[in-house]
Write a structure and sequence with these properties.
heterodimer; A: three-stranded antiparallel sheet; 22 helices; B: mainly alpha; about 0% strand; flat
Chain lengths: ~450, ~500
């Protein structure tokens, strides 16, 4: 190198010898700067990606956590026998003839009296005050009375739901300005609420009903819960697990251990890799046309949802299973065959048990994917109704219309009342907790049981 | 007998058969297992398979065929006059089925006795009210003809179900008996069992083909049905998308605005995801220390594990309002470009975030597949690391990266929840990314979750849209897989 340089540019070389070796010439500098910039782009890209993740999680948690608390009102309701049990025989069948409508006057009266007792003076009518409470209060009291007929005639202390607007006000979602256009609640109501909070009659606390309860109609966001759709998801996942694990494992065993290299095997392989990339909504169309239109299975049933999700998860499970079958060294098979096992015995008695941790990991990840999938469920009708009744038995759990967690979240996101947005975010927290648990279990399984050969 | 009960009984027969077959084989060998051809369990398995397999096959075939035969029998019985009032024979038949199901439920809940359900007449009883009491809602009033046919339908169905139960149980017993008869010491039970197992393995693997065929058939049949009502060229080249669920005349259902919305949103998504994903992949594979890599890579992949409904909600409730605050009226920039939160840019941006880990992990794999010798050669010649990446590694990995981008594009085109919640509902041909537009997937959802019945063009168009989507994504996938595979071979 050096002698070439001295021969070609003798004059310049003399000039350049005055420069220090430790000082870079402009061209090198430019190149090093470019290097630095390039590296910074990379760091920037990763930080942008991670920033999105943080923003997403912060948004979810910030918007969703309030859904887990709810505002309650302590109310002493006098259960007047003359109203609730006109026949006076304390027979629940007769008392059931009094509809929730008949309970409203009692509740209004109780509210008025409790306010008076707390020293709050208002010129509002009882029916206007009633708007502080959820419309579900009447049915709550009625259920209580029907299950405790002996309590009629006494004054019972209840903890009832405040209306969605009051709840929103205490959570900072509903402002006084916004109420100007709202016919459901006035600023005067909020003054009362402020006083009640001070007196401890209105209280915000953890709301288990959101996690375990049923969905509610459009006008009662305060009593909506995700529990029933969680059951729907559970039944769907049972179907997916029971079908996709054996079918996926069987298909992978055939492809990995038995299949000859021919056009049929190629066809299967091409199909699997394509199905893995088909948009999920297309599986929904398949479910609608094949399971509901053609096979006349019931619409909105978790069974159908499970079937569709099975077809969708199969490629994931097959790909994972094949990878873990491939990881079992051939010496295991050879040894089994060498001591006289048939090929089938070698696979089922030796290879499959060794591959099991990997298969289970893949299955759990596939299930997690299926649990969060929404689009196909929209097409088979798991939205658009109120999942208000938990299934009564096992068959009903599979066959009766139900929602699923992501479908329920979508349903809430579509409703008009912003109080439902909070429920949707809260639902997402629950969904993500499930997904996180499943993925962590998968990672632990892999770390704990996977063998390196 | 109910279906689950039949299944349980067949399973019980198989379990007993297993025990008996095993015992019979051992007894046949005089208790000396070494005289058997196979291990005793195989004789048991053989009996169980003989009991289960034919019985379940028959059951499945019967379940598929029975409704078809009964439908063809019943449909002809509906009088012409009744058919006219429902529009088509299919609709009249679905009313028959709804009524029959309603009667079933009424009997089940004890609101009617079984004889009553078979003998009620519209002249004497108000069926609609009776069924309404047990929670079965019927659309219109029940005509005498429909009721008569529905009762006939129930009778036929009950008879067929009875025949099915008997046939399946008889076949299970016969199979078990045959398996037992086979269970002699010289019977090669293992061979038989393994042959059946292999058959089962093959059929499990073939399910992938069946699924594809199922998708293709369900799309093709309904698409053909749609084009019978609606002219194909209007669908393919129509510039207006304005479905009307109410009017009887054909509303304009042109796919062009939807395709434009789909492609525009996907383009913006790729604009976000490809640079970020690529740079992240390059940094992770070429620069990052193993510690950084072990933390950053799984964290980025968390983004890929988050369900799309979450991204949809994020677009609708967070990103949309945020963008309006910046670009909308009275926003931070003082421009009035954005009318509402749902827009192409909202959906595109969020979809881009979703695709970042998809692009980065695919590109990471591809960059890692470039042989180390090429890096060493370049660095040895005095190139800096970034020059090596730009001038050696990226050109070498280019086909693979193109494949990855195509896969990401296919993902973006098929994505549903983000666009359903974040993109808008009106089909529009516009260049402004702040306009609300809609996509093929969003319209599939809205056409099929509306109240329209499945035979109207506004519902059937969803299948034609699905067909378009399927062909589009399939083409992209095949192309991408071909490129990626070709590229892998290059360096193997």
């Amino acid at each position: 190198m050096s002698d070439i340089a001295t021969r070609d540019i003798p004059v310049k070389a003399a000039a350049e010898t005055t420069r220090s070796l430790f000082e870079r010439d402009p061209k090198i500098k430019a190149r090093w700067n470019a290097e630095g910039r390039f590296r910074a782009y990379g760091i920037g890209a990763i930080s942008i990606g991670l920033m999105f993740l943080v923003v997403l999680l912060v948004t979810i948690i910030g918007n969703g956590l309030p859904a887990f608390t709810q505002t309650y009102v302590h109310l002493n309701i006098e259960l007047k026998a003359s109203k609730l049990d006109p026949k006076g025989n304390r027979n629940p069948d007769d008392m059931a003839k009094v509809m929730t409508f008949g309970y409203n006057p009692l509740i209004e009266q109780a509210l008025e009296e409790d306010l008076a007792k707390a020293g709050i003076e208002t010129d509002m009518k009882a029916s206007a005050l009633r708007k502080l409470l959820s419309s579900s209060v009447a049915s709550q009291v009625r259920d209580y009375v029907l299950s405790h007929p002996g309590e009629v005639g006494k004054t019972v202390s209840f903890e009832v739901l405040a209306s969605g607007r009051v709840d929103g006000y205490l959570k900072g979602r509903v402002t006084r300005e916004a109420l100007a256009q709202d016919k459901n609640l006035d600023a005067a109501h909020l003054d009362i609420v402020d006083t009640l909070v001070k007196k401890g009659i209105v209280e915000r606390r953890f709301n288990l009903d959101f996690i375990l309860g049923a969905d509610a109609s459009d006008s009662r966001p305060e009593s909506a819960g995700i529990g029933v759709s969680m059951l729907g998801s559970l039944f769907m996942m049972l179907v997916v697990l029971v079908l996709s694990l054996p079918i996926g494992v069987a298909a992978s065993i055939y492809l990995e251990e038995f299949a000859a290299k021919n056009w049929f095997t190629d066809l299967i392989e091409v199909n699997i890799s394509n199905l893995a990339a088909v948009p999920s909504i297309v599986f929904g169309i398949l479910g609608l046309a094949a399971f509901i239109q053609f096979a006349n299975l019931p619409q909105s049933a978790p069974l159908v949802g499970g079937l569709v999700l099975t077809l969708m998860t199969l490629p994931t499970i097959i790909i994972a299973t094949r990878a873990s079958l491939k990881a079992v060294p051939p010496s295991i098979r050879d040894a089994a065959l060498g001591v006289g096992a048939s090929k089938m015995q070698a696979v089922f008695h030796h290879v499959l048990p060794l591959a099991m941790p990997g298969i289970l990991t893949g299955t759990i990840i596939g299930l997690a994917q299926a649990l969060g999938e929404t689009a196909p469920l929209l097409l088979i009708g798991m939205v658009g109704f109120i999942a208000s009744n938990p299934p009564t038995d096992l068959v009903a759990g599979f066959l009766h219309p139900n929602s699923a967690m992501p479908a329920q979240i979508y349903e809430w996101a579509k409703r008009a009342d912003p109080a439902y947005y909070e429920r949707a975010w809260g639902g997402i927290i629950i969904l993500l907790v499930f997904l996180a648990i499943m993925n962590i279990v998968a990672v632990i399984l892999r770390r704990r049981f996977e063998r390196r050969w | 007998m109910l279906l689950p009960a039949v299944v349980v009984v067949v399973l019980l027969i198989a379990a007993f058969g297993f025990v008996l077959g095993r015992q019979r084989a051992i007894a046949g060998a005089g208790g000396d297992i070494s005289k058997l051809h196979s291990l005793p369990n195989y004789y048991g398995f053989n009996v169980a398979i003989m009991a289960l397999l034919p019985a379940f096959l028959l059951l499945v075939v019967w379940l598929v065929v029975q409704p078809m035969i009964i439908e063809s029998q019943i449909v002809g019985q509906i009088q012409e006059r009744t058919v006219e009032s429902y529009g088509t024979r299919g609709l009249a038949f679905s009313e028959v089925r709804r009524l029959a199901d309603g009667l079933d439920i009424a009997v089940e809940r004890g609101a009617m006795s079984a004889e009553q359900a078979d003998s009620v007449r519209t002249e004497l009883t108000d069926i609609r009210n009776r069924l309404g009491e047990v929670g079965v809602a019927l659309g219109s009033n029940v005509s005498a003809d429909i009721l008569y046919v529905a009762q006939h339908y129930r009778v036929l169905n009950a008879a067929a179900s009875m025949a099915r139960t008997i046939a399946v149980l008889a076949l299970a017993l016969a199979g078990a008996a045959y398996g037992l008869w086979q269970a002699r010491p010289d019977f090669r039970a293992r061979i038989a069992v393994e042959r059946t197992s292999l058959g089962l393995l093959i059929s499990a693997a073939s399910l992938a083909i069946l699924t594809t065929i199922g998708i293709a058939l369900s799309l093709i049949f309904n698409t053909v049905e749609f084009f019978r009502i609606y002219p194909m060229q209007d669908f393919l080249f129509g510039l207006v998308w304005q479905p009307s669920f109410t009017s009887d005349t054909l509303s304009p259902l042109g796919i062009v605005p939807l395709l434009w919305g789909t492609l525009y949103i996907s383009f913006i998504a790729l604009l976000v995801a490809v640079p970020i994903g690529l740079f992240a992949a390059v940094y992770l594979s070429e620069y990052a220390s193993s510690g950084v890599r072990a933390v950053a890579k799984p964290l980025l992949e968390v983004l890929a594990g988050i369900p799309t409904i979450v991204y949809g909600l994020f677009a609708l409730l967070t990103v949309g309002p945020l963008l309006v605050n910046v670009f909308g009226k009275g926003g931070a920039l003082g421009v009035d470009w954005m009318q509402g939160g749902t827009a192409v840019i909202t959906a595109g941006l969020v979809m881009g975030i979703m695709l970042i880990p998809f692009v980065s992990s695919l590109a990471d794999d591809i960059i890692n597949a470039v042989p180390q010798a090429m890096r060493d050669g370049s660095l040895g010649l005095g190139a800096t690391q970034s020059e090596t990446v730009r001038k050696v590694i990226l050109p070498a990995a280019l086909p693979g990266i193109v494949g990855a981008i195509l896969l990401a594009a296919s993902r973006a085109i098929g994505e549903t929840m983000i666009v359903v919640l974040g993109a808008g509902a009106a089909g529009r041909l516009s260049l402004n990314p702040f306009d609300a537009m809609t996509t093929v997937t969003a319209k599939i959802v809205s056409q099929l979750t509306g109240d329209a019945d499945f035979t109207s063009p506004v519902a059937l168009v969803a299948f034609a849209l699905g067909m378009t989507l399927f062909i589009f994504t399939l083409g992209l996938n095949v192309l991408a897989l071909y490129i990626v595979r070709k590229y892998r071979e290059q360096y193997e």
